[in-house]
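Notes continue from the previous slide.

Worked example: a multi-chain complex. Inputs as given:
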Amino acid sequence: MIPLQDNALLPAGFRAAAVQCGIRPRRKRLDLGLVLADEACPAAAIYTTNMLQGAHIPVCREHLSRSGGMVRAVLVNSGNANCSTGQQGIEDNRTVCRALAERIGCAPEQVLFLSTGVIGARLPVEKVLEALPELLGQDAQQGASAFTQAIMTTDLVPKLVARSCADAKGRLFRVTGIAKGSGMIHPNMATMLSFLMTDAACELDMEQTLRRTADLSYHRLSVDGDTSPNDTVVLWTSRRTRIEPSTALPEALREISQDLARRIAVDGEGATRLVTVEVKGAPSEADAVHVGRTIATSPLTKTAVHGRDPNWGRILAAAGRSGIRFDAERARVWIGSSEVYSHGVPHPENENAAHLHMLNEKEVVLGIDLGAGPGEAQVWTCDFSADYVHINADYRS
Amino acid sequence: MIPLQDNALLPAGFRAAAVQCGIRPRRKRLDLGLVLADEACPAAAIYTTNMLQGAHIPVCREHLSRSGGMVRAVLVNSGNANCSTGQQGIEDNRTVCRALAERIGCAPEQVLFLSTGVIGARLPVEKVLEALPELLGQDAQQGASAFTQAIMTTDLVPKLVARSCADAKGRLFRVTGIAKGSGMIHPNMATMLSFLMTDAACELDMEQTLRRTADLSYHRLSVDGDTSPNDTVVLWTSRRTRIEPSTALPEALREISQDLARRIAVDGEGATRLVTVEVKGAPSEADAVHVGRTIATSPLTKTAVHGRDPNWGRILAAAGRSGIRFDAERARVWIGSSEVYSHGVPHPENENAAHLHMLNEKEVVLGIDLGAGPGEAQVWTCDFSADYVHINADYRS
């Protein structure tokens, strides 16, 4: 079993480890990671809405359903997405789950096994199976950091946030969030994986809490508008610390997930700026998110940020084509803290300050007030650089 | 009045001319174009769906409504979009319409005056007014080609298609289509303008015919997913040739508009390939268009084409996130004539042929059959190059 060392970044009741199992033979790096709970405990997961879905998604759904949402182990490999692999891919996932369950002494449906990496190639099952003893032994790299590294694909930086929080009565609990994403996965698309772990036990609907958390974070994140067949977010609690029903846990989950979402955006391929799109005055919050996403996925907006060009016309026009009704004569647009357009009138005198904000700040704020209601939201993205094109065009040719 | 010379590319009853009025002082080129009908004759127009709309759009709507759809002159300037210019912009448009109407002897509402170019700057009305005598005189450059050049902004090539057609009884009529678009307009977004002129007179609902024509052509075109506040398509007939009610005119309009749409795509900034996305097996034609547009606007698909990478996973995943329901296990994907994925199984043995198609053909075909119904459609776009980013990022910084 995994020794208890270097797991300080995880909530009580969880341990993590990682090994190099050789899925990417040419790259010497960790590619198989495990988080193990001391005993099976409640988890929920949400998945990509893409019609193309990696093999792990139907198996995870089935396992959570059969186990009543009780999970003992989360295993993740990088380097191979086990996607577009047909029935074989599903069988391969089950084989690994059974083998791990047998070694740790639980039911196979208490294991979730996720994959990220190249699509369309069969998972090297034997390599994963052969690596399990090492992964569970003393020689594996221990701890949340090792796990975080093992799930990276083309991410430039690992993404891990650990936090101690207090409920209304001052009782401490912990939340740890780990994510990967935004780097494209050769030869295919970005996969976003995130694992939110806590030791807090309180009367929350796990899936509902996870959905609201994702709505406020990962669902407000766009790197290039494409979604992956393997996107998965898992919420998991060891229930070691009983806390008072309060907003403390949902708030901690939201803050950590937003932090991770921003880290994913800024790690976007070729990105040089984190872009926060602020939308106000939309008819509803959902409308504000929709307008924000339209601005955040506009190639014209994203290339303007890359060029540090305070091009408010592109922001206004992207909002204008979002399908949300508003009167451009009542709208306001700002960049950083500089208002560059309001009520039908451009403010060219403020464009230099806006340009300096884009030039000097690592986080660029693009704001629009539609003047059409109370809805507001923030959406995160990154700028669009020639490097993005090089990275994504120059793979096989 | 415009002398009848070099107007051979236009249908009977139309003449065109262009001058350099100096809207772009640093660029010595034609920037004001006019098409004049011998007498006011039926026209219809459709406009951008963007909530931000250039000043010409409300005035065009009002003029067509007040004139009963009878138009004598279409005037177009490039270099200034007269957009985000408030009430002043609308007054400026009206001033020019009144001045031209007075000179040619018609009601102001029989004039349409369209603008394309930079947004957020006031139209230099005096320059336009001062240029009208020259535009109507012997010294203006004559003909459809001059008009086509005058409406270009960052287009690399003029886009004009003229054709003689025959109705079911062999009676000849003419259709001429002129378009500009896809090049971004410094410092703002692409504007697509198109003028479809014919001398055919038959019992067609003009606006309905124009909408169907655009649905089959311009609405299936994407360069970067952004729409402009000034997009406008005008259909105009001099009614000089009475033809039998038949499909000849709608078919000619469709073919010419599709030809122009493809020319716009291939003239996309930084583009090196025309991309035709073929969608089959969608639940409906509208669903097929929606899936095609999602593929055609995916940065991952477009960068893959630029890299000549037969990356079918990106095509399938873009379709998968379109919102149209289908079973990826029943889908097929092809590139050129090479099937690279079918029924859940990749065909890596065909990827080299697909790569060669992308490498050697100027028009790349990306196809997907969703296996979910009878709907099919083609959508046109271009590849996404680092030059696109440079052109759109490097304007003001």
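Summary box: Chain A touches chain B through 68 residues (CB under 8 Å). Residues 1-5, 184-188 of chain A have pLDDT under 50 and may be disordered.
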